[in-house]
Design goal:
globular; 5 strands; about 10% strand; Rossmann fold
Length: about 140
């Protein structure tokens, strides 16, 4: 079982978030028990911004362990399709948002996505299996 992981869950874990930290940690432990955990370059970059250096971010990611999984062509194209749907529905952002790449990567290259932002992904990525950390 391959689980893609979203930035918000990783930041909960690394930042020991008082509201979501415990439940995100438990969810990460469970998905690691069930198989591998991957994150695309967008997630790696977003997580890295929370650390004092790229090296510190890489060390933290390796402790979980989270595998680097680059967005493949089909996933990039799916992100573009979801972006187009967002714009058709009246979305106002004028550049591709990172979440579209994360969602497409999870749907095309993993079995499911662990995230706290399930509504967005359910709206734009039908067929994507979504896991959410349990609410504390």
């Amino acid at each position: 079982m391959i689980t893609a992981i979203d930035t918000n869950v990783l930041l909960d874990v690394f930042g020991d978030d008082p509201r979501f930290g415990e439940s995100s940690q438990a969810a990460v432990r469970e998905v690691l028990r069930q198989g591998s955990v991957v994150a695309c370059e967008v997630v790696w970059a977003e997580v890295a911004s929370a650390f004092p250096s790229p090296k510190a971010a890489a060390e933290a990611m390796s402790r979980l362990p989270v595998e680097f999984s680059a967005v493949e062509v089909d996933a990039a194209l799916a992100a573009g399709g979801a972006w187009a749907e967002y714009r058709r529905r009246g979305g106002q952002r004028t550049r591709v948002a990172a979440d579209f790449l994360i969602g497409a990567h999870a749907r095309e290259q993993a079995d499911r996505l662990l995230t706290r932002d399930r509504g967005f992904y359910r709206t734009y990525f039908s067929g994507l299996r979504i896991l959410e950390p349990p609410q504390s």
